[in-house]
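Lab notebook, bench 4. The sequencing result for the construct came back, and we need a structural model before the next group meeting so we can plan mutations. Quick request posted to the team channel:

Model the 3D structure of this chain.
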Amino acid sequence: MFPKYDVIVVGAGHSGCEAAVAAANLGSKVLLATMNMQTIAQMSCNPAMGGVAKGQIVREIDALGGYSGIVTDETMIQFRMLNLSKGPAMWSPRAQSDRMQFANKWRLMLEANENIDFWQEMVTGIVVKDGRAVGVRTGIGMEIETKSVVLTNGTFLNGIIHIGEKQFGGGRAGERASTGITEQLLELGFESGRMKTGTPPRVDGRSLDWDKMEIQPGDENPGRFSFTNTSLPEKQRPCHVTYTNKKVHDILRTGFDRSPMFNGRIRGVGPRYCPSIEDKIDRFADRDRHQLFVEPEGWDTVEIYVNGFSSSLPEDVQHKAMQLIPGFEKAKMFRPGYAIEYDYFPPTQLKVSLETRLVKNLFFAGQINGTTGYEEAACQGLIAGINAHNAINDKEPFVLKRSEAYIGVLIDDLVNKGTDEPYRMFTSRAEYRILLRQDNADLRLTPLAKKLGMAHMENRLDRVNHKTEITAIIQKHFRKESVGPDELNPMLESKGSAPMKQKMKLINVLSRPQISLDDLRKSIPRLNDYLNQYDDETVRIAEINSKYEGYIQKEQEMVDKMSRLESVILKEGFDYNQLVSLSNEAREKLNQLQPRTIGQASRISGVSPSDISVLLIHMGR
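Done. Here's the predicted structure in token form:
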């Protein structure tokens, strides 16, 4: 009935979709197995992509040939660039999407790929022979042959949904949990744990009083996630902001004795940076209010997502408290919020390629690795799909360094440090974030995608090369062109910057903290005429590269120093017990994780600088 596949991807969420297209676009024959074809690429939680650090990840996915950025652009209802008051390393794109259009667009793009087949059924196990994944087993007892397997099960592995004192099996509202895989993996020697996440109530927008809330419009000139020429909406839908209050908190507290979070029924650890509303009012008892973002789910639907009001309290308590929020006095709920508890597998059991150490050609990606968020899941799926293809074609694993991408930071953190709470990406996790900006993701990563063999990236590389060339031309102009005091002093004084006493090069004026390129363009007509021949995106990169040249150079020097350690390859399968000068903890961790390089070894928790010195001496360095 089935051919033998190159890659079988289990689960069709954000991670599974990216894994499938990555392997397929590299030439593998892929089967995407899902329990429900109607929920492919479902936005299970908020109808948005991007945000702080997450937006950088989506742009990196796009630069590597993934589809998340394209789908987001084509289905967005609002776009905002966050953190513009901070430096460019912190600028982060975020978009609200039409939930139904998002899932539909993803499915159509998957179906358009001739290398992807689909199968709707629960996968209950992996077929393993001689320590290698060679197939999957389905709920009706079928075995489908493959050369590699990527598990992207999300919150479905033995999922339990909690609403107050009620609990029932499920991987998502209205869908059953997935069983069998956890039990088999434990038999194979894997360790598992439990995690928890949650979602807020959905409400009827027709029952809300919008005049009592603050309006939050999108950017006047919306940007894109994709580096392709995706279409953008001619108009945008606004979001709104409102706040909880003391009365809301008092009502919520009346349900604490029936809360699964407080009475011990939930054993899994929840996301620290996205707590439930009951967790917030318990942990921050001195706060009289908490901000809520009231987000539309699409262009035409009246369904509204109440961002910030995630809860697993009894539904009657949720509804009663909600109606004390300004604008929600007559709110009707479509469904209550709930918490979901599910199995995950500590990611220290993986190689940096996301292949498991215990079973060859078996890859894990997404929430199965202990992460939270669409973006974190999608980028892991992309890397797992690439490496599943590479593994069966005797190619080297594709591994991004911490200095190359936020994706590299995320995977390096997971594999070397592990996580005992849902992992979320932040800009603060990246030590080279001035190099890893959202605006230059294509310059950093598209050449790597082309080198991998992503056939659909040919034109993208031409665009990158042109962009690099034009950026250099603009920067050269900044270094060469001089301006006089009479042209700029009025503007400098209005900005609180010291006036010029003689002519200066443009780059020296631009490097002043208070001065932007837009300020210079308004004051120097000939500069504006010169820059108008180029697109805004390239001009912006040239400005950032020029303005932060010193910082960029320092970070690059740090990268160069670390790259020396990354180039020292460690022997696979080496017994570190032979090196008696290592600490006991270092021997244990190194034997367990088997790092590929000295650089990776240096980032493992419990491996000290003196242990690294021992390794370097052993390597003859």
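The radius of gyration is 26 Å.
Will bring this to the meeting.
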